[in-house]
Design a protein that fits this description.
The complex is a heterodimer of chains A (about 450) and B (about 200). Chain A contains 22 helices and no strands. Chain A is mainly α. Chain A has one domain. In chain A, α1 packs antiparallel against α16, α5 runs antiparallel to α12 and α19 runs antiparallel to α20. The radius of gyration of chain A is 22 Å and the shape is globular. The relative contact order of chain A is 0.15. Classes of the chains: A mainly alpha (about 450), B alpha/beta (about 200). At the A-B interface, α21 of A face β3, β4 and α4 of B.
């Protein structure tokens, strides 16, 4: 077992280093490391076909619980529910983008607030958070940042403060729901949570923090956004929101499908449909509705990310099956001396600091089995058994906002800004977003202490 | 006249930039080198000096991340803006000379592309750099090595192929053998022959 443990750790560390170095595409890294885990750790060292079979978890597809789940249960091995759900949502989002939904929504809201800078600033923050609750933050920021630049050029304001605020709110909104950010999907599907569980817990935290953020960013950026000498806005020169719609029929259909997805997600604890069924259903109806362009939509799905997930889950299973994650859990338990407050603080802040510099997905996938191991200690103390899960979600989702490389939305937002002539350096980014992240994390820590402990 | 795009990759101190300038004059076509910097400076509102520092520079590996083709690195975004610029110029049918910018690979699909790589003996490069930058021999050598290392990382990161590998270019030439003037003469003949072959196609 010792050799298996050593190899599992070496493969995991090598995977992390290679992801950070970014010399090889990250899906090749995780798939390569996943293959090594299966062959070296499970095959050669452990000689355990069961470990390989459990990790691949293919039999899960054939079970009723994968698609329809009356009682909540935890899953192990490759988290196929996460992968199927993300794939389904990718197909839906491609359909929406093709129809011009996101651009239309941004322009519509800008018109509703009469194209005035500060109201746009505030409504775009809220829109960023709300959309990110259901759609991946990369897509949200890709469209929002592009429209922000366009409006900035028409209204003559600096788009950087607005883009930075949108990025922060996208990450915050993502923390509010089970499908908002990949770490939440991993936590939710691994631990058997529902959409509503997240909404009532991390969602409540995100809601409070969003109010704080709007106030914080308003005071932090108002001088850069308000131009006292600016001429009155002539909205007739602006492109009408309807111009964003590429095809009215597709637009209506994609809006309806999005509405169905939201309803299915919000009600899935009542309908007992799993996120895997919802993802599959949404993808199928999107493809049927766009039958002519179905192949094109499928081609646009980000398969690299899906493959990245598969490899990642295998490597993390290597750590789990060899007992390494149990050691880490014991270590966290020891240093916290059984003090739940300290344990929550360690999980939340450690997740946040790690997520500020490395991809939060591998981190969350690694931490889930650890918090599952720690759960009995939490229960024994009389605290809410899911407290550590909420601390992990908030830490990984919010921590990523602190630096330009902490989360995908940050990279996309800063890149869209730079390509349009507004480069954002590390200093410019961190000056306002790092303090905002620390304050939001502190607020969340206090909230968790007061509510759950 | 059919479109002619002359891509000039070069080792630092080999005289590649001077060769590119002279070729642009002889073929009476636009040179894209410094122009690309002012173009990006105008677009970004940054000063040409700031762009110069980030021009043909690799990103900082630990400080940058790439997601679905997007990068937070200013160096990467400046590089991509330059790639887009030369791509659009090429698509417009314009003939031009472009220095560096991975152009031998980025513009590979254009039949009018003639890709050159100018290298030089280290002694000759040191001598040249000592004269131009008024440096001593030791500093000149370090400067060349630093610049070439930067160009190599930039090139290899953006196109995934080895900078200076002769298989990437139509012609790799050591400017120290004939000297810069005669190298230009030789290259002019080669490019004329290529242009003629293109016309006859």
């Amino acid at each position: 077992m010792l050799a298996a443990q050593i190899f599992a750790v070496v493969i995991f560390v090598a995977m992390f280093i290679l992801i950070v170095l970014d010399k090889i595409e990250r899906h090749y890294v995780t798939l390569g490391c996943g293959a090594l885990t299966l062959v070296v750790v499970f095959g050669i060292c452990m000689r355990s076909g069961t470990a390989v079979w459990n990790t691949l978890a293919i039999k899960g597809f054939a079970t009723k619980e994968f698609w329809y789940q009356v009682t909540e249960s935890e899953s192990k091995g490759i988290n196929w529910a996460t992968i199927v759900f993300i794939a389904g949502m990718m197909v839906m989002v491609e359909g929406m983008a093709k129809a011009g939904f996101f651009r239309w929504l941004c322009m519509r809201i800008a018109f509703l607030v009469k194209c005035k800078t500060i109201p746009i600033f505030i409504t775009f923050m809220v829109m960023s958070a709300v959309l990110s609750m259901f759609i991946d933050s990369i897509t949200v920021i890709m469209f929002l940042a592009a429209v922000t630049v366009e409006l900035a050029q028409l209204l003559k304001f600096n788009p950087i403060p607005m883009i930075l605020s949108e990025i922060f709110c996208a990450n915050l909104g993502g923390s509010a729901t089970m499908c908002g950010d990949p770490p939440n999907i991993i936590v939710g599907t691994s631990m058997g949570f529902s959409f509503f569980d997240f909404l009532m817990n991390t969602g409540a935290i995100a809601g409070i923090c969003l109010v704080f953020c709007i106030i914080f960013f308003y005071f932090a950026f108002r001088k850069e956004l308000v131009d006292k000498n600016a001429a009155p806005v002539d909205m007739s020169k602006f492109p009408a929101p309807s111009e964003a719609i590429t095809n009215k029929k597709d637009f209506v259909i994609s809006s309806i499908i999005f509405g169905i997805a939201v309803v299915l997600l919000v009600t899935h604890s009542m309908t007992h449909l799993t996120v895997a069924s919802i993802g599959t259903f949404i993808a199928v109806i999107t493809l049927i509705a766009n039958a002519k362009d179905a192949v094109e939509l499928l081609k646009k799905v980000d398969y690299k990310t899906l493959l990245f997930f598969i490899g990642l889950f295998i490597v993390v299973c290597g750590l789990e099956e060899t007992g390494i994650l149990k050691y880490i859990a014991d270590f966290i338990s020891d240093i916290s001396g059984g003090n739940i407050m300290l344990m929550v603080a360690i999980i939340l802040w450690l997740s946040a600091i790690a997520s500020a510099f490395v991809d939060n997905i591998p981190f969350a996938a690694t931490m889930v089995p650890i918090i599952q191991s720690l759960a009995p200690i939490v229960v024994a103390s009389g605290a809410d058994p899911n407290t550590l899960a909420w601390a992990l979600s908030i830490g990984t989702d919010i921590g990523g906002s602190a630096t330009p490389i902490g989360a995908s939305a940050n990279v996309v937002g800063t890149s869209v800004a730079a390509k349009n002539g507004y480069p954002i350096s590390w200093g410019r980014y961190c000056a306002k977003l790092a303090p905002a992240t620390v304050i939001v994390l502190a607020l969340s820590t206090v909230y968790i202490f007061v509510r759950y402990l | 006249m059919a479109q002619l795009i002359i891509s000039v990759g070069r080792e630092f101190g080999s005289g590649g930039r001077v060769i590119a300038e002279e070729l642009a004059k002889r073929f009476n076509i636009q040179l894209y080198d410094r122009h690309l910097i002012t173009e990006i400076a105008n677009k970004t509102g940054m000063s040409p000096e700031e762009i110069e520092k980030l021009n043909e520079a690799p990103n900082s590996r630990l400080m940058s991340r790439r997601v679905r083709g997007f990068s937070n690195s200013i160096e990467d975004n400046i590089a991509e803006m330059q790639f887009d610029f030369i791509q659009k110029r090429a698509e417009s049918g314009e003939s031009f000379v472009v220095v560096g910018r991975c152009s031998e690979t980025k513009l590979k699909q254009f039949p009018g592309l003639v890709s050159l790589f100018i290298l030089g003996d280290m002694d000759a490069k040191i001598k040249r750099v000592m004269e131009i930058y008024e440096m001593n021999e030791h500093d000149a050598k370090s400067f060349i090595e630093k610049k070439d290392k930067k160009r190599k990382r930039y090139h290899n990161y953006h196109v995934g192929l080895h900078w200076g590998d002769s298989r990437l270019y139509d012609l790799s030439i050591n400017s120290s053998r004939l000297g810069i003037e005669k190298t230009i003469d030789y290259l002019e003949q080669y490019i004329k022959a290529r242009a003629a072959a293109l016309e006859n196609k």
